[in-house]
Amino acid sequence: MTNGTGLWLGRIFMCLTALALLAAPNCFAQAGADQPVRVGIIGLDTSHATEFTRMFNDASDPNHVPGVRVVAAFKGGSPDIKESWDRVEKYTAELHDKWKVQIVDSIPTLCSMVDAILLESVDGRTHLEQVRPVLAAHKPVFIDKPLAANLKDAREIARLADRAGVPWFSSSSLRYWAETQRLKNAPEAGGTVGASVYGPSPLEPHHTDLTWYGIHAVEILYAIMGSGCETVTRVNTEDTDVVVGKWKDGRIGEMRGIRKGPYEFGITLFGAKAILHSGPQPTNYYQPLLVEIAQFFRTHKSPIDTKETLEMFEFMEAADMSKAKGGAPVALSEAGK
After folding, report:
1. Which of 129, 160, 214, 224 is the most buried (most CB within 10 A)?
2. Parallel, antiparallel, or unpaired: how do β-strands 192-200 and 168-171 relate?
3. Could you tell me if 126 and 84 are in contact, meaning their C-beta atoms sit under 8 angstroms apart?
4. Quick one: how far is CA 334 from the chain centroid?
5. Domains defined for the chain, CATH in brackets
6. Do 293 and 120 contact (CB within 8 A), yes or no?
7. Three-class SS string for 175-235?
8. What pLDDT digit, counting tens, does each position of 187-241 carry?
């Protein structure tokens, strides 16, 4: 082969390679600026599936969040959790009949139809297995609370997502409650010395106690305090949980879980200059969270540090360990061992 022939063939090869790269699908391809992100839902056993769809798909809704459209869904459901099996058919019918969302019979099929995933299954035990095909398909995913039913699964989800290089995040809507954000950033407090947060905390036997619903109050606490808790102590009765965390910088954070009495959320922020209290209950839990999700689906940048998300699960598991030890303090470093 002459040098001239080799050079000519080399140029052809380079051109063909460039064309192949241009034609190859981008595993994180994003919708155009004027096109909505096509989203699929996994898990139609929670009102979040229908509420999120309404606010994303209905431009006439006063809480509409533009830029995202739910187009397909996988039903899911757990036969041993009443909150799942007695709602899944109702919500599936609403998504299909009212919102014209296509219902598919597998998660891989769902992933092939969309740009991003909302994993909404109410049962945290299912999240690890349901997210595996999502990560294999390289689809950005929001995993609704709880991220998992326990710390072990939460860590494994984070590990698998990191290995696959797939962007994800998980959050309670209460993290973005206006009062959470106001108190978190309140200059008049003069810096956060500590916080006391309360909220409903019913239990579900298949989940670590606080992950089922108490996670909402835990998430508020972490939104304000940030990561860095070292030990927790839990006082538990049939009607109430009180979990006190000691942060490494000396701050104290308290989560009170309510099982008897009004199911309300509240915050007291202890600042160096002032003690502040949250205002009225949120009238719209979801819209601020959906704004964050829509931005995440566009940018693929999580608004929450994975370290903080996993520390919340260490906090909740250490609280279970403290309960088993009659309220003795437990270090977060012992959680999961």
Report:
1. 214
2. unpaired
3. no
4. 24
5. 37-144 (3.40.50.720), 175-282+304-334 (3.30.360.10)
6. no
7. HHCHHHHHHHCCHHHCCEEEEEEEEECCCCCCCCHHHCCCHHHHHHHHHHHCCCEEEEEEE
8. 999 999 999 999 999 999 999 999 999 999 999 999 999 999 999 999 999 999 9
